[in-house]
Amino acid sequence: MVSIKASVMVITLLTICLLATNASPVCCRNYMKTKIPFLKIKGYSVQTVTELCPISAIIFHTKKGKACTDPALNWVMYYVDRLRNEAQMIHMKSTLAGI
C-alpha cells in the first residue's frame, strides 16, 4: 500500500511541473487578420521562433493589449520603420538639447 507521504510528494511534484509549464512567457501562436491603425500603437517587440513560440512575429503594443502581426506583411514592417524613425528623432532632439 502506498503511503500518504509518497502520494502527497507525487501530487506536489506534478503540481510544480504543471505550474512550471504554464509559467512560460506568453507568446504569439497565430497572427491577427486585420490592420491596426498606426495611431493606436504605443510600441512593439519582436518574437523569434523558439521551442515554446512557434512563429516569428512583430508584437504591437496598444492601450488595449498586444497584437501579434506577421513580419512578412508590408504594412507591419512599414509601421516598425516609422516607430524606429520616431524614436531616432526623439533621441537626436534630446541629444542636441543636452549640448
Automatic annotation (TrEMBL):
Single annotated GO MF: chemokine activity
Keywords (A to Z) from UniProt: Chemotaxis, Cytokine, Disulfide bond, Secreted, Signal
GO cellular component assignments: extracellular space
Major localisation: secreted
InterPro entries named in the record: Chemokine_b/g/d, Chemokine_CC_CS, Chemokine_IL8-like_dom, Interleukin_8-like_sf
Gene3D superfamilies linked: 2.40.50.40
CDD domains: Chemokine
Record Pfam families: IL8
Domain (Chemokine interleukin-8-like): residue spans on this chain: 24-83
Subcellular location: Secreted
Keyword Disulfide bond among record annotations: yes
TM ranges: none
Keyword DNA-binding attributed: no
GO biological process entries: immune response
Alphabetized SMART domains for the sequence: SCY
Taxonomy, superkingdom: Eukaryota
Signal sequence, start to end: 1-23
UniProt similarity note: Belongs to the intercrine beta (chemokine CC) family.
Listed PANTHER family: C-C MOTIF CHEMOKINE, SMALL INDUCIBLE CYTOKINE A
Protein name as it appears in the record: C-C motif chemokine
Annotated organism of origin: Champsocephalus esox
Source organism phylogeny: Eukaryota, Metazoa, Chordata, Craniata, Vertebrata
